[in-house]
Every structure is written in C-alpha cells, then in structure tokens.
C-alpha cells in the first residue's frame, strides 16, 4: 500500500503531497499559486476548487453521475447499468449475461472486462480484486478532494463496442470556465495505448501527454461538434473539468468527468507542451 495512505489528510497535507508527487514526476517544482503550465493549473484547483465541490463529488461517482445526467435531461448520454454492488458476495451471486466491464464507483483507472458464461462472469481472482477496490480510499491515494467520502461500490456495465467491433475510443474534452479548449483522443486503451491532442478546430497539436503520440492525424469524427456542445453544457459552473465521451454508432455516451487529470503530474513530450496548453487556459480564463 502506498505511503500516502498512512499520512495525515487535510487541505495542507493533501496539497503538499500533491506538489511533491508532481515535482518527482515532472522534473520541475510546480507553482500552484501562480499557475502557468497545464499541470500547475490542475494543482491550483486543489488549493482553490472553482465550483460546487459536493456536486463534483456526485459527478465523480460513476453511479450517481447517471442520475445527474437524467436530471439535466441528458438520458441520451447515459451508459446502461447492469448492477451496482456494495459487496463481493452480491457480485458472486448475480446472474450476468454477455460482455461486460466492471469498475469501482469511487476510484479511477481500474477496469475488468469479461464475458459471462452460464450467468457467471468473474473468477475468484477477479473477486479478490473487487475486494481490494472496496477496501481502498482513493482520496487518500490521490488527495483529490472530489473523491473524499464517496461510497465504495462496484458498477458493472455492458461492454460498449464501436462500428469496428472494438471498444470505442475515448474522446476527452478539456474545459475551462465551461469552454472546451483541447481534445484528447486515446487509441487502443486495452491493447497498445497511444494518445493524440487536438485543438477544438481539429488540428493535431505538436506534443504528446504521457503516452506515445501518433504523428498522423485522424479524420475529424462526425460527432465532434455535438460533443463540444455537450461538453459546454456539462462543464458549466466549474473552473476546470475534463468531459469524456465515447463516440458510438447510436450517438454520444458519457464516460466520466475528471477534475484532476493525471493528478497534476502529466508528462509532456516535448516539455514545452505543458506550458503551451497552460497558456491557452490562461487566455480563456482571462488571467493572462
């Protein structure tokens, strides 16, 4: 278990640990009080969260966000739910069908994909993984305030596939003050993970973030403009949020909404990309 799980919590501790983590990963000591880079902006939001934090917590919960979408009249964005479980025993006795994906409602980055056979989908090893998810307090691990106090549950959804028969690409819309300014596209997330960044006019940006960058731009998907409009709607009221969509043959589906991507420690190649994206954020927010 990581050291931060044993260290004190609270605003000062959370931010100090986040800055030290970013310094270790980025190679520079971020200035979260006067942010200039993309990562500094993300860390600054830990010092002063712009928006309603309780709403951010609800949106972060992978089950509760679906109720929020319904209240907004955006049922069209909701991915169906097969079940939400508070114990491993409930999962073990549930009758599943088809291809499915399991995630924790209170964590980030974890997923298990399986195909049910005779009503059973998960192995003993999978159930032990679920047990570890239910035992983890992701807030202590990440020190992201929107995860603090979330109910610990496992959500199971049908596995989405796009028109090629593969799991859909992730299209992630970075928004400041409700305005999208960049689009992250993840390819082959469960195979060979690559990533591209585009501006909102679908120009490929000349830097990579965390993963290898394919230098060949992809054709602009038909749903980009609709996704930009939906991202504007969902991002209202927050300083920064990343709105993630799946582009499906039937239309858009919301993946998740993220307030602290990479925990403010995303490596850029070349490093200048960190500053360039940060400057765009300053221009939009009027703080340049």
TrEMBL record:
It comes from Pseudovibrio brasiliensis. InterPro entries: ATPgrasp_TupA. Pfam families: ATPgrasp_TupA. It comes from the Bacteria. This is Glycosyl transferase. GO terms for molecular function: transferase activity. Keywords: Plasmid, Transferase. The lineage of its organism: Bacteria, Pseudomonadati, Pseudomonadota, Alphaproteobacteria, Hyphomicrobiales.
